[in-house]
Write a structure and sequence with these properties.
Strand content of chain B: 15-25%
Strand content of chain A: 15-25%
Largest sheet of chain A: 7 strands, mixed
Structural class of chain A: alpha+beta
CATH superfamily of the largest domain in chain B: HypD, alpha/beta domain 2
CATH topology of the largest domain in chain B: Rossmann fold
Strand order of the largest sheet of chain B: 2-1-7-8-9
Oligomer: heterodimer
CATH superfamily of the largest domain in chain A: PurM-like C-terminal domain
Number of helices of chain A: 9
CATH architecture of the largest domain in chain A: Alpha-Beta Complex
Number of strands of chain A: 13
Helix content of chain A: 25-40%
Number of helices of chain B: 18
Shape of chain B: globular
Number of domains of chain B: 3
Helix content of chain B: 40-55%
Strand order of the largest sheet of chain A: 8-10-7-11-9-12-13
Chain lengths: ~325, ~375
């Protein structure tokens, strides 16, 4: 096999088969996938959740992960945030001609590791190769199916006055890890992406309490955007306290330097939960037992006033409005 | 955390706020020159900590905001020339010009790239010898030395295809212009922190001397700003306006001589066109002497259609401190960060963006617990 992806790898001919059989199947094997039929067949019953997402992150390898790990964790987390137990994923890869095969191998290895950790199977897949310049190195789309247990009803529209807002850990790690790697921003901090599958954390939380009203992973747009989504969907106010929000030292330093506010920086392994006050401590204690919830904290609560607004008590004491992220995050210029 | 937490300590902040309240007997109006200060003041809720007698107005210290529409139109026209790569700071991309924006021009196929420093633009020029690379040079004394350094680097490496459209502006001359205008009566100025790191405190001396207006240089952390306000209130209450540095860890009275030398080496002082203010003498930097061939203004000529200012936009008034963002009829209704009408809503240092993002202080007061 050649060292790089050739257009012929996407032709549907021998090289295509080679690619699937040598680079994907050995890592991702399971009965449904191994059949290599046109579609995967599986049994299902009850309420199902279904989601899809495309991954175009640049750079594709970053501290703490790569596009492969991200493509599994992102879709697993989207299912988990509705209280679903992720079961099956599909994987579609678009590769630019000339992409190194060992890079591809590394990405498939990450996909395998993340899928194993999340206990999901990849049962359907596709690869395409496009001409040089028609895609930026490698894009991945994953779709996922999850099963929702009876009685679980989680939605951004379920927040009620008095509920507690719990954050599962430090914010901004992923965004700063990516930004520090981007071309042009020669800025290096020992910050790793927090990219992780959160489905087990969620199932432990659901075991601890049936009164979890909202769950969401604050990815692009950060914590501020997720809280604003809850406030709008549920027609409530949310009051948070700046000094309760965990932020890693390096992330804070990088944000100070770049003129960013960590509450707007992306995460890939964190969740925000809105929980009935009576169960908040129980859920928090359970989260702290899980490796991905060790730094979890109650950061605020749901209020009746002002509706559809997020207010933050700043470190200095006064309060201010926290709006959604608008535009793109750019470092300051002076 | 080292060097961050120290300047965000709420106990010290409350102590300073108390001292300010105790000293302040009469209504005073201050201008924070720098957009970075406007953002920090709103982000940390500093207006709610200080007594109502202390009024704060935003000033012209946002490089994107004071860039004249005519200059933006020129940048867009340069982008449309054949074999040209435009390099710019990201904030400039979305500012609407008379007929288009850099972002729009990019979508239409011109080669416009966002860079984080002018040195990156030099490298792009080196990698693309068959193209002309033009850097849109905006900013105050803070950014000008780095642009000067990049021009010197290009000269040393004999990179002939690198050019700068120099729209750099100087701080003390525009302060003088605003004070001469007398449109907004000021008692004190929160002087810019980063600019003063470069120029020092001496260039502000004429302000208390000739205009009786107090000047204190401030850093950007909440305690820096509160300390600055404390000193300003003290000066004004005592009737002894002067120039003080409330940011001694960054600013020396004489400034940064190396940076000043770099600027002097490359630039000549001339008049500059400021949005909302117009042509101000001695307030701009043009590329001079042996570096003249790097000047995009000299190397390229473009024909421009007449300038059209956005109807109803009060960015010009906002940068003079003559209006606050909510006083503009377009604010929040027509003009939002997603669909900005004027630059003050686009820039991360724009006053309108700060008021939009952090809410009008009079509203957030209601929510403070």
């Amino acid at each position: 096999m050649s060292d790089t992806i050739l257009l012929a790898h996407g032709s549907g001919g021998k090289l295509s088969h080679d690619l699937v059989e040598k680079k994907f199947l050995p890592f991702l094997a399971n009965p449904a996938l191994n059949k290599l039929d046109d579609s995967a067949i599986f049994e299902a019953s009850g309420r199902l959740a279904f989601t899809t997402d495309s991954y175009v992150v640049n750079p594709i390898f970053f501290p703490g992960g790569d596009i492969g790990k991200l493509s599994v964790c992102g879709t697993v987390n989207d299912l988990a945030m509705n209280g679903a137990k992720p079961v099956y994923l599909s994987l579609s890869v678009i590769i630019e001609e000339g992409f190194p095969l060992d890079g591809l191998e590394q990405i498939v290895w990450s996909i395998k590791a993340a899928a194993e950790e999340a206990e999901v199977q990849i049962i359907a897949g596709d690869t395409k190769v496009v001409n040089r310049g028609q895609a930026d190195k490698l894009f991945i789309t994953t779709s996922g199916i999850g099963v929702i247990s009876p009685g679980v009803d989680i939605s951004g529209a379920n927040a009620k006055t008095g509920d507690k807002v719990i954050l599962s850990g430090t914010i901004g790690d992923h965004g700063i890890a990516i930004m520090s790697q981007r071309e042009g921003l020669r800025f290096s901090v020992p910050i790793e992406s927090d990219c992780a599958p959160l489905n087990k954390l969620v199932s432990q939380m659901l075991e601890a309490s049936s009164r979890i009203h909202c769950l969401r992973d604050p990815t692009r747009g950060g914590l501020a955007t997720t809280l604003n989504e809850f406030a709008r969907q549920s027609n409530v106010g949310i009051m948070i306290q700046e000094n309760k929000i965990p932020v890693k030292e390096g992330v804070r330093a990088a944000c100070e330097l770049l003129g960013l506010d960590p509450i707007y920086v992306a995460n890939e392994g964190k969740l925000v939960a809105v929980v009935e006050p009576s169960d908040a401590d129980k859920v928090l204690a359970q989260m702290k037992q899980n490796g991905y919830g060790g730094d979890a904290a109650i950061i605020g609560e749901v209020t009746s006033q002002p509706p559809r607004r997020v207010i933050m008590k700043t470190k200095l004491g006064p309060s201010r409005i926290v709006d959604m992220l608008s535009g793109e995050l750019l470092p300051r210029i002076c | 955390m080292k060097f961050i937490d120290e300047y965000q300590n709420s106990k010290l902040a409350k102590g300073l706020a108390k001292r300010i309240a105790k000293q302040s007997s009469k209504h005073i109006r201050l201008m924070e020159f720098c957009g970075g200060h406007t953002h920090a003041i709103m982000r940390y809720g500093i207006r709610q900590l200080v007594p109502k007698t202390v009024e704060m107005r935003s000033g012209p210290g946002c490089p994107v905001c004071v860039t004249a529409t005519a200059d933006l139109d020129k940048a867009i026209a340069l982008a449309q020339l054949p074999n040209v790569i435009i390099t710019t700071f990201g904030d400039m991309m979305r500012v609407p010009g008379s007929y288009s924006s850099l972002q729009q021009a990019k979508a239409e196929g011109t080669d416009i790239r966002v860079v984080y420093s002018a040195i990156d633009a030099v490298e792009i020029a080196e990698a693309n010898p068959e193209k002309s690379v033009i850097f849109i040079g905006i900013g105050f004394e803070t950014t000008a030395p780095t642009i000067a350094a990049s021009i010197i680097k290009a000269q040393q490496k004999k990179i002939e295809n690198f050019h700068v459209l120099s729209l750099h502006k100087l701080t003390p001359p525009v302060m003088k212009a605003l004070l001469n205008l007398g449109e907004v009566k000021l008692d004190g100025i929160i002087c810019p922190g980063h600019v003063s790191v470069i120029i020092g405190s001496y260039p502000y001396e004429f302000i208390p001397k000739n205009y009786g207006v107090a000047c204190v240089i401030s850093g950007f952390e909440p305690l820096d700003i509160l300390l600055c306000l404390d000193k300003l209130v003290e000066q004004i209450e005592n009737g002894q306006p002067g120039v003080e540095i409330a940011y001694p860890r960054g600013v020396k009275p004489e400034g940064n001589s190396k940076a000043l030398q770099l600027m002097e080496e490359v630039f000549e002082i001339g008049e500059a066109n400021w949005r909302g203010i117009g042509w101000v003498p001695q307030s701009g930097l043009k590329i001079g002497g042996k570096y003249e061939h790097f000047d995009a203004d000299k190397a390229f000529s473009v024909s421009l259609k007449p300038v059209r200012e956005p109807k109803g936009c009060r960015c010009g008034d906002v940068v003079r401190g003559a209006a606050t963002p909510p006083e503009c009829k377009l604010f929040r209704k027509v003009c939002t960060p997603e669909r900005p009408v004027g630059p003050c809503m686009v820039s991360s240092e724009g006053a309108c963006a700060a008021y939009y993002q952090y809410g009008p202080p009079e509203n957030s007061q209601e929510f403070s617990g």
